[in-house]
Amino acid sequence: MACAILVFVRHWTTALVLVVGLLAGPASAAQQQACTAKHPGGIPTLAEPEIRNLQENLKAGPFYRELLLQFGKPLSCNLEFDDGKIGLTYAFHGGVQLMSRIDRKIEISEQRVQIPRMEMTKAIALLKAAERDAYGPNGCGITWDHPAEESIGGPAGFREAVYRGTTCNCQARVTSRNSYAVSLVLKSAC
After folding, report:
1. Cα–Cα distances in angstroms (integers) from residue 6 to residues 12, 17, 18, 19, 20, in the given order
2. Where are the domains of the chain?
3. Using an 8 Å Cβ cutoff, are 112 and 183 in contact?
4. pLDDT digits (tens, 9 = 90+) for 109-158
5. From the centroid of its chain, how far is CA 72?
6. Which of these, 24, 78, 96, 165, has the minimum number of CB atoms within 10 Å of its CB?
């Protein structure tokens, strides 16, 4: 009799584990940010690993982590794919966006944050962290002491500072409005 009860309990336990596993599968998939693809005919299967890698690297990077802390989970994610060029755009609350573009054919990469307002010291620290994340502990040789270029243009109160590096034509750009950063860019072309 005890053996029959153990078999009965084992079968029900197995069934319960299977049901929980099936329910947990879609829930964990729902927790990951699905990106809406913009490509006629879908994304080629060969490009999927590179797209997944770009998305994982972006989500592990300092820009995404900072925006996640400040604004919560993204509202949406859009994926663009065109002849080997990949673009990911995450939209957060308050009109904040994180964009990443790569084109392996001509070895260009860019990450851009659009934000209504960020302290300049925090913006520079975030760009430095992104440089180290992309190029390793020594970065790409950006000279942070002073910008290589500064320009005042566009609407009143806007200013752009460009910091240049020595590796892969890398550069960091900060666009500010009334002394607050509104756009951060880290890009390179090897």
Report:
1. 10, 16, 18, 20, 21
2. 34-189
3. yes
4. 899 999 999 999 999 999 999 999 988 998 999 989 888 877 776 666 78
5. 14
6. 24
